[in-house]
Amino acid sequence: MNWLRSLMMPAPGSSYASEVDDLYMLIFWISAFFFLLIAGLLSYFVWRYRRRSADEVTPHISHNFKLEVVWSVIPLIIVVVLFFLGFNSYMNARVGPGEALEIQVRGKRWVWEFEYPDGMRTLNEIYIPVNRPVRFVMSSEDVIHSFYVPSFRVKMDVLPNRYTDLWFHPIEEGVHTMLCAEYCGRGHSDMLAQIHVVSEAKFREWQEQGDERMRTMPLAELGKMLYESRGCATCHSIDGTRREGPTFKGIYGESHAMRDGSTVLVDENYLRESILEPQAKIRSGYEAIMPTFQGLLREREIAALIEFIKAQK
Ligand code: CUA
Prior knowledge:
By secondary structure, the protein is of the alpha+beta class. It has 3 domains: 2-94, Orthogonal Bundle (Helix Hairpins); 101-210, Cupredoxins -  blue copper proteins (Immunoglobulin-like, Sandwich); 214-310, Cytochrome c-like domain (Cytochrome Bc1 Complex, Chain D, domain 2). It has 9 helices and 12 strands. It has helices at residues 2-8, 15-48, 65-94, 200-209, 212-216, 219-229, 232-235, 268-276, 299-310, and strands spanning 101-108, 111-115, 121-123, 125-129, 134-140, 145-149, 154-158, 164-168, 174-180, 192-198, 255-257, 263-265. Helix 6 (219-229) packs across helix 9. The longest helix is centred in the N-terminal third of the chain and has 34 residues, at 15-48. The radius of gyration is 28 Å and the shape is elongated. The two termini are 55 Å apart. Dinuclear copper ion (CUA) binds next to loops.
């Protein structure tokens, strides 16, 4: 019956996922059994006790003690068993092993920021080693978000002013999609991140050198990739549409009025400052909602984004 399972749920990526699926399928089959039993008996009785003649009188039957005990006690046993299985599984999901790799997660409109124990930070993308438990300690910088990885069967709210946590044990190498499952504004559906589960050796290599592509891609191409993957695209269009932030179309070389009454020429230095210190100059007519990308982009990545913005004519 594996086809049925894969029809209903994505392939399991963690040890916990199989546990959730087993319990889910057990409940599914119990429900299917009782549905058929009850619907079958119902149809049979409708036919068996149909009215046959106009003067037929139904005999008066008040109750049947034995039958009532049977149909109360059996479901009671079933739900108590399900409760204990579910509770046990829930505790496995909530209480992680002590020696997990800890990653800090910050949700903000509309990106996910991850921070490793050694201080390295990434956006919308993380690498984790296979066969090692990972624990995520999460908080939000603005509104409520929700950290959801369907293939790991884990989900937890990410709240401002409070930490929540979550752990799982990846069992196979592969790429998993993580998404925000709590409506948090217009860019909600753009809050997607990739979780790369890789071998221990590859994880170490990535920690030391970063992603191979980041070092070798041409600047403008890298800029386009970052524009799409680091959350810029959510607020800055490239076709002239107005969103939370100014469009990038033709922005390079323009002069813009700022909130404080000054006028600023959009050049490389202004773009760089706006990426690293977005609150320094706010264009008039726009909200000061952009988060800083200080420490989140390497020098080459900042240069790449600027090249990409310059290319939007
Ligand atoms: Cu963040 Cu929805």
